[in-house]
Specification:
Layout: E1 2-7, E2 13-19, E3 22-28, E4 34-41, E5 47-49, E6 57-61, H1 65-70, E7 80-84, E8 89-90, E9 95-96, E10 106-108, E11 110-116, E12 132-139, E13 142-143, H2 144-150, H3 154-158, E14 163-170, E15 179-184, E16 187-193, H4 201-209, E17 219-221, E18 229-231, E19 236-241, E20 245-251
Length: 252
């Protein structure tokens, strides 16, 4: 099932499931029980929103060995965590704002992200997938020069619009071997598979839940493969993941 969150022409904010017949509105709790309302919308008549409203976005650094190598970093012994603020979130089709007043080098980083379904604290790895609602695409936009300057990641990864997410949450997916690609103006720059993750999705959910309580709607972004590179105003960036679809954004 592909779940979307969207705004209608009447400014209603709704959830729905998307398919060849359009977007079918659902009512209830997407993290619990819900049902179809009977209303259907044409995809061209609505505006997609970020698929969830998280309390936090927990991201993972250096979770592919080839990316660690291109960054000149040693492989981590444990997941490297950082937080992107929820205010950085934008949707499929929205614009990434290049912060020229502070940065002169902004990179794309295509990643598989997962959505937490229920409160998770001290979760064992063997039960971790039961806490996942589904999966989506995320672009971990990074001001690379500020990352090097500041050492820690908050400013470099926390600007408004630096967390494009979407377009859907796919609930019926095995995250262990999904093809992932990132395109810059139509040219593929990143190409890998989630089978090369150093720390798997169950490992990440378990590990993070033993650091902080995860709440329904929270996002975990699992890290990027090699091939990261700079974007500039006017560019189109697309993150495509097998079974989910393509997240498209424009840099301004």
């Amino acid at each position: 099932m592909k779940i979307v969150r969207f705004e209608t022409q009447n400014r209603e904010v709704l959830y729905g499931t998307t398919g060849p017949d359009g977007i079918k509105e659902i009512r209830g709790d997407i993290f619990g029980k819900f049902e179809a309302s009977g209303r259907t919308f044409d995809a061209g008549e609505v505006r997609l929103l970020p698929p969830v409203v998280p309390s936090k976005i927990v991201a993972v650094g250096l979770n592919y060995s080839d990316h660690a190598a291109e960054m000149g970093r040693e492989l981590p012994e444990e997941p490297r965590l950082f937080i992107k603020p929820a205010t950085a979130l934008i949707a499929h089709g929205d614009k990434i704002i290049y912060p020229k007043h502070m940065s002169s080098h902004v990179d794309y980083e295509g990643e598989l992200a997962l959505i937490i379904k229920k409160k998770a604290r001290q979760v064992e790895e063997s039960y971790a997938l039961g806490y996942v609602l589904g999966y989506t695409c995320l672009n971990d936009v990074t001001a690379r020069d500020l990352q090097a300057k500041d050492i820690q990641f908050t400013r470099a990864k926390g600007f408004d619009t630096f967390a494009p997410v979407g377009p859907v949450v796919e609930t019926d997916l095995d995250p262990s071997d999904l093809e992932i690609s990132t395109y810059l103006n139509g040219e593929r720059k990143q190409h890998s598979s989630t089978r090369y993750l150093l720390f798997s999705v169950p490992k990440l959910v378990s590990f993070i839940s033993k650091v902080m309580t995860l709440l329904p709607g929270d996002i975990i972004s699992t890290g990027t493969p090699s091939g990261v590179g700079p974007m500039k105003p006017g560019d189109k960036v697309e993150v495509e993941i097998e079974g989910i679809g393509k997240l498209t954004n424009y840099v301004v």
